[in-house]
Specification:
about 130 residues, mainly beta, 3-stranded antiparallel sheet
Length: about 130
């Protein structure tokens, strides 16, 4: 019979190469130890640093959206998608996606057109 236990020795704080040690002790106190070097990728939560909408014309039909965000790619293994959406402010849940993508960073100004008789809520949604 082999009993396993977990002993926390180091908490990973940084990315880079880390040695992981696995130790097994049986009921007769025989010990087997195995060391494996693994690569830990840098990760940060998605960051939205800018999300601003400004009317650009006197008739207020166009809105310029300045958006800037980043997220970790984990060497392309972190699946991601994002979308910029608008919704009429009249008790609806019908979000309209204006533009979307799968980029890990985005810094751009886009122009959106609106009917100036209606009010809208704007959002950005980032999934990873």
């Amino acid at each position: 019979m082999v009993l396993f236990f977990v002993e926390e020795t180091n908490i990973m704080q940084d990315s880079g190469n880390v040695d992981i040690v696995v130790k097994a002790i049986d009921t007769r106190d025989r010990v087997k130890e195995y060391t494996k070097r693994i690569s830990v990728q840098h990760y940060e939560l998605p960051k939205i640093t800018k999300f601003v909408g400004d009317r650009t014309q006197t008739d207020q039909r166009n809105v310029k959206m300045d958006i800037d965000f980043t997220m970790s790619s984990l060497n392309g293994k972190n699946r991601t998608n994002w979308k910029n959406r608008k919704e009429k402010k009249r008790k609806t849940t019908n979000w309209i996606t204006e533009f979307s993508g799968t980029d890990y960073s985005f810094k751009q100004a886009n122009k959106l057109s609106f009917n100036n008789d209606e009010k809208f809520t704007l959002s950005i949604q980032i999934n990873n």
